[in-house]
User: Fold this.
Amino acid sequence: MSFVRLPDKLAVRAAAFSLVGVANGIVGIAIIVIAGLLGAGPLLANLFGYGAGLLVSFTLNSRVTFHSRAVDRHTVMRFLLAFGVAFAINLLAVKVVADLFTTHRLLTSLAGTPLYVVAFYLLCEYWVFRRHPSGVDG
Assistant:
């Protein structure tokens, strides 16, 4: 059996992206819990939590994971669009699993997570924080 060896820098970026995901998950969940304890309803608490998580994700990914690449307002817009696409893929996977299988609700809710992570990483690697050989953002 032969394995495809990822270029070392790509593997490091994928690992950094994963660690950033853990960090933004911790921050997002903490904000959701704190907002709920302070009296915010579930929707508002989630809005605050996901907003904070996205801010942490963008900040850390732009400075740590993809630090050698230019970041501007177009990068921010691509990041938000990439999140939207990855989240839509996540929701589609959850819907398909919910329709096809009678699994525990928690497992159904998590069914799209692997697809979300892979899609979001690939979009960030090759589109959001893409390299520009000419040095000009487009």
In short: The chain has a mean pLDDT of 86. The longest helix spans residues 8-37. Residues 1-68 form one domain. DSSP finds five helices and no strands in the chain.
